[in-house]
Amino acid sequence: MLVSYRWLRELLPSLEAPVEIIADRLTSAGLEVESREERGEAADRVVVAEVREVAPHPSRSGLRLVTVDRGGVVQRVVCGAPNVPGPGGRVVLAPLGATLPAVGLTMAPREIGGVLSEGMLCSEVELGLADESDGLLLLPATAGAPGDLLSRALPESRDTILGLGVTPNRPDALGHVGVARELAALLGLDFAFPAPGRPKQQAEGVLSELVRVEIEDGERCPEYDAGAVLGVTVAPSPAWLRWRLHALGVRPISNVVDVTNWVLLGFGQPMHAFDLDRLRGSQLAVRRARQGEPFTTLDGVERVLDADDLLIVDGEGPVALAGVMGGLDSEIKPHTRRVLLESAYFTPRGVRRTSRRHSLKTEASFRFERGVDWGATATVLEHAKVLLSELAGGAVVAGTLRVEARALQRPRMRLRSKRLDALLGAHVPFEEATRTLARLGLEVGAPEGARGDEAVEVTGASWRPDLEREVDLIEEVARVRGLDAIPTVLPAIQPQTPRTAGKLERAVAELARDLGLDEALTYAFVSPRELAMLHAPEPVVTLMNPLTDERSVMRTSLLPGLLEALRHARRYGERSVRLYSVGARFLHPDGAAQSSSGAAARPRLAADQGVLPEERPSFAAVLAGARPGYLAANPEEHDIYDAKGLACALVERLIGRPVSVRRVKELDHAAHLHPRGAAELFVDEVRVGTFGPLHPDVVDALDLDGTAQTIELDLAALEALGKRVPRYRPVPRLPAVSRDLALVVSDDVPAGDVEELIRGEAGELCESVRLFDVFRGGALPPEHRSLAFRVIYRDPRAATAPDAARALTDKEVDERHARVVKVAAERLGAALRG
Q: Residues near 550 by Cβ (< 8 Å), separated by ≥ 6?
């Protein structure tokens, strides 16, 4: 919103504060001044001059020698403008040394065709007062005296424009009157709403006989006012109006249209001017459009209307899209003689929907969408009629045709002194608070109650739709008083145990990025169908007002959102995906519910039960497509080992503890994974996650167009385990004893089970077990394989008490090793490979 400092001073005659103070005060009160621009700076450097003589140029056709008097100083200027006035006419002279910022010129003596020109006669464009002009700016005889600065002779030529960042809740600040009212309250000045003058010419006749107005949709248009001016002459507006509109970013068009724009900028009330003679049937009605009804707006675009659009129609069809834009067939033409002015209130939501539907953003829709002052429509209409009569020479038809479909009420609020002080955290004299509200234009009743416990009833204002509750009034008091006046007091803080909420989530997200994954921000709202497909826990929280049916419950798994992102990526041709997500799963507070396919799932939580779900922090990742292979000619697909390595790395780096991997034996909690690849992660016998390839049925049900590896981690379980702090272990002084062991086992026996058995039977002397070879074929039986392990034996005291450690003998190592082979044969059916 561009605001003219000169216009503000006209509305507030007692305003003496400089622009800098005004900008600071408005910004501190919430109307941020984002820019400041000086308009018409040249007016402080050019002067009024009177033409004494005009003669043709001796050697250049089309140029003339103009002798001017600039207040006792006579000089000659070469000029090529077509409208140089004769002797006695007033023009604007840029003397030598003057700079014209609009065109970037500084005046210096210049010889043109052998004649020295001492300055330049200026047009509105060169002075920065307009975008186009037909020639020199000609001044009236009453505009100052020769030699006066133009800014003194015509004050409207000089102004400062402030750019306000108006928030959506402050539609009153979208007009100069509203900004002036706000400024008066902030600076303690008197403010009076501008009263319309009396028209110089009164037309005969009754307005209701010229046009009839009817409102068919009172919900979208509560009231509609209309007035008429007859016998107008459409012509350019006077200089002061053209300059003011230009400075505020509005292109001057004609006196009739410029009046409506002046009202819009002045009062924040959009208006529309109709050619009364072009209204068919001499009637107007406000109604909804018919589905598919055609209409051509002022911009020349033919639009197909929706049944939700609100229209202004005459006796035959649409003439305006209510609150947005007028129609091409009823616009003001040069031959227009009778003008009907509209001043109405259209509800914000309807205008907003229409504006978005047709991609029409206008100054009118911008204001109607936020809410105009419905209490001033009639007064604003009177201003427009009087001004139009003055500028276009028309006669005003007495009265206003006002149609009110439903009465609008101002809200009533109660302000309590105790609540005021409690909410602001500082004492504010109640008399000062009520005086502040009254300065803002609110109706304030007489205080009730004892001193210190007073209360007062406040009636809201039609121009402030954002003031509806007591807290809104308290905010106004604080805003006008100054937020800096509210003391900053550090509240008493009771020592608390350090909180770790979110710390682990941030850490795992950082680790995931370091390991080459990209974060996917997904909805916490999912579809029950997707959870059922993934055999996830039964949802326990159902949304009362979901965005769509596909977002109707709170998630019990992070995979639906990630797999949706995978499906979307593959539909656009992106096959390789490495995504992760961190967030909460919403589970039953009595423990994780059974899977969605289970028969005894826990009941869902109702909104009125007062029981909250468990928000369990979790991590999930999806690997799909080819793994990064920068030098490989044919990159290989992600497989189970990629998922295993990533999952183990995440856990071990996150909590500093070793992780063990076990094949999933019971698929109830991992039914969404392929049975031959599903695995669990354990830390100190605590299950912390799962990983594996998706089950083919899940891939088909979710239309993923290819398999994917998934990882799920229970961050709450990892946090409960805690992070192990690394400790220094001295380098062993005694050598270790190593034994290689190749056992032939059935393919059904997991390598992890064999490794676990070796560790257990080797006892405390076993320092480590590592699988280093897998072999199939040869002389091995069918469906069997050879697993080769390297077992390291060492005295366990070598790491903690090196001086007490001893070297192991071959005998005791062989005894342990033989026991391992014997127990492996008994429990797993293993045999030493020959």
A: 526, 527
